[in-house]
Structures are given as C-alpha cells and as structure tokens.
Write a structure and sequence with these properties.
There is one protein chain. Helices cover about 50% and strands about 20% of the residues. Strands 1-4-5-6-7 form a five-stranded mixed beta sheet. Strands 2-3 form a two-stranded antiparallel sheet. β2 and β3 form a beta hairpin.
C-alpha cells in the first residue's frame, strides 16, 4: 500500500522513475524498515498507559545512524499520543492485513495498529513517517483502501492516517465520492502495472 500510494502522488516521468526504483528494490530484496522500534514504543505507551515514556526511551535504544530520524519523529508521536485523550479511555485493538484488488493490481492494505475507545469507537491507524506531509492524493488513496476493507481489517472501525512528524490526524473526507476514487485508483493501478512490466522488459 505504501508503494502504491506514494506512486499516485507523483506526476509525469517521476512515476516511471519511481516504479523502476521499486522494482530494483524488490529484486535486491531490500526494504529494511527503520521505524519498527518507534511503532513498538508508541503501541507500548498506548497499551501500558505510560504517557510517552517508551517513546522517550526508544531514541537511546536505536543504532546511532537512526537517532536523527527518531529525534525528528518522536515529538510528533508524543503529540499524537496526547491527542488520544485520557489513557484509561483508549487501548490497542488487533488489526488484520487485507489484500485489495485495484484494477489489475493487488495491494496489501496494512495498518500499523488498531485503537478501541471506552465509548465504543474503533480506529485502524496507518502512520506516515516521511519528511514531507502526506499529499491529498496519498491521504485519499490510503484512507479509501482501508475503509473499503475494514470488515477484514477491524470491523466497525474508522480509518485514520497519522502524519507522525507533525502529530496530525487525517480522516476520510465526508464529501468524497467513493465511486470517483475507485475510478481514479483503477486508472492509476493500470498505469502502474504497465510501467512495472516495461521496467521488467
């Protein structure tokens, strides 16, 4: 899902360049995730209601090369954690990944975690770590794909995208038309598939 939603934000020749880079990474089997420990720390602070102490400590645990990254992301993560409100009123919920058919493309839809609130609300949360804020296209694509498969991911939950560096939460635009988004994404998926095949030739 991350690769596809990053693709839809690009225009012109940048799309082909991006797909070529994805294909080379797949062939090299590269793709180490430097954010794993931060996600675990955030989930621990939610689960154990520790108000950010795990997030504060994780910066000292990561390898030296990742410290600048964690220093830049952790403040926003703490802002997001505080925005959840009373720690006693929110906890983690188990989510499942889903496979979405988007035109000719199969996209793995994988939120980072789920939340359950004492008032019955549920959220499936995907985190955005990039330096640049998520574009409107990326937000729309990601939230739409999660919403479309929420029965598998976390029934009766709302999809949420968190811009972690800024601690900002993005939700579905109630004015958005799902049919229009489907048409747009199907076209993007067809182009992505064609470019992928071209780079393989």
């Amino acid at each position: 899902m991350l690769g596809f939603t990053r693709y839809v934000t690009r225009t012109g020749p940048a799309k082909a360049t991006f797909v070529g880079g994805l294909r080379k990474a797949r062939e090299r089997r590269s793709g180490f995730n430097p954010h794993g420990q931060l996600v675990k720390a955030l989930k621990a602070d939610i689960a154990f209601r520790t108000g950010g102490s795990y997030l504060s400590g994780v910066v000292e645990l990561v390898k030296e090369r990742w410290k600048p990254l964690y220093d830049s992301v952790t403040p926003g993560a703490k802002t997001y954690l505080a925005s959840l409100g009373d720690p006693e009123q929110v906890g983690l919920a188990q989510t499942r990944d889903a496979l979405a058919s988007v035109g000719p493309l199969v996209v793995k839809v994988n939120p980072h975690f789920g939340l359950k609130y004492e008032d019955g609300r549920r959220e499936a949360v995907r985190l955005h770590f990039d330096e640049a804020p998520p574009t409107r296209e990326a937000i729309t694509a990601m939230l739409h794909l999660m919403a479309r498969h929420m029965d598998q991911i976390l029934p009766n939950a709302d999809p949420v995208l968190v811009d972690l560096r800024r601690g900002e939460v993005h939700r579905l635009d109630p004015a958005a038309k799902p049919a229009d988004i489907e048409t747009w994404l199907s076209g993007e998926a067809a182009a992505f598939t064609a470019m992928w095949s071209t780079t393989a030739a």
